[in-house]
Amino acid sequence: MSYNLAFDFSVNKENKTITVKREFAAELSLVWDAYTKSEILDQWWAPKPWKAKTKTMDFREGGHWHYAMTGPEGEEHWAWADFKNIETHKKYTGLDAFADANGNVNKDLPQSNWEVTFTNNGQVTLVEFQISYDDLAQLEATIQMGFKEGFTSALGNLDQYLNAQFKLRNQLKTNTMARTSTYLNFPGNTEEAFNFYRSVFGTEFSGKGIQRFGDIPSEAGHPPIAEDVKKMILHVELPILGGHILMATDAPKEMGMTVTQGNNMHICLEPETKTETKKLFDALSKDGNIVMPLADMFFGAYFGECTDRFGINWMFNCIEKQ
Question: Does the pTM of the predicted model rise above 0.85?
Answer without folding.
Answer: no
